[in-house]
Amino acid sequence: MQLVVARIGRAHGIKGEVTVEVRTDEPELRLGPGAVLATDPASVGPLTIETGRVHSGRLLLRFEGVRDRTRAEALRNTLLIAEVDPEELPEDPDEYYDHQLMDLDVVTKDGTEIGRITEISHLPSQDLFIVERPDGSEVMIPFVEEIVTEIDLEEQRAVIDPPPGLIDDRAEIASARDAETTAEGEPAPEDASAPQDPAPEGKA
User: Fold this and answer.
1) Of 64, 78, 83, 186, which residue is 20 to 30 A from 9 by alpha carbon distance?
2) Angle at the Cα of 92 (from 119 to 5), degrees rounded to 5?
C-alpha cells in the first residue's frame, strides 16, 4: 500500500536541498539515501533521495538530478509517497505506523465518542492525532501515554483520558457554569447604584 511519508517544503540554500515536513515515525527508513519515492503530483516523480541531514531541527533532503535552488523550489508542496507492506509492523510493540492509526474511533475511558483520526502530525517534540469531531470541527490530541491510554486495533479505537480543557469547547464550559448557577439558586439582584466591574477578557 502507498503511504504519504513527507511533504516537501521550501528550498534550502543554492545546491538543491529542500526542507521536508516528515509524516512518518521512521524517517531513517522511509527517507534515507537511496529511497525511491512516488509523488503527488505524479508528474514530478519518482524522486530518489541522494542525501539527507538534520539542520536546526528540520530534515533536509537532496534528490538525484536536483542541483540548484530553482529546481528545488519547483518541488515545493509535493507529497512523497512510499510503498509499504500493509502486513508490516514496527519492531516495538508500543509503536504504530500511521496507516494503522488512521480512521480509528477516538473515545474517552467512559465511552464518550470524541471523533475519528483523520491525520497524524509528526512534530519535533511529539506526535499529534488530528481528530474530526461529529460536528465537523477538529481537535488535536497529543499521542502520549498519559493521554492516549489504549490503542485497540481489533476494535479500531483509541481510548483517551484527556486533561481538562483539551477537548472541551467554550459552549460546554458555559453550559456547565449555567448549571452550577441554577443549582445554587438565582443570583442576588444587582445594586444599580454600585459600580460594576467589567467582565474579564476571554471569559464566556
Assistant:
1) 83
2) 35
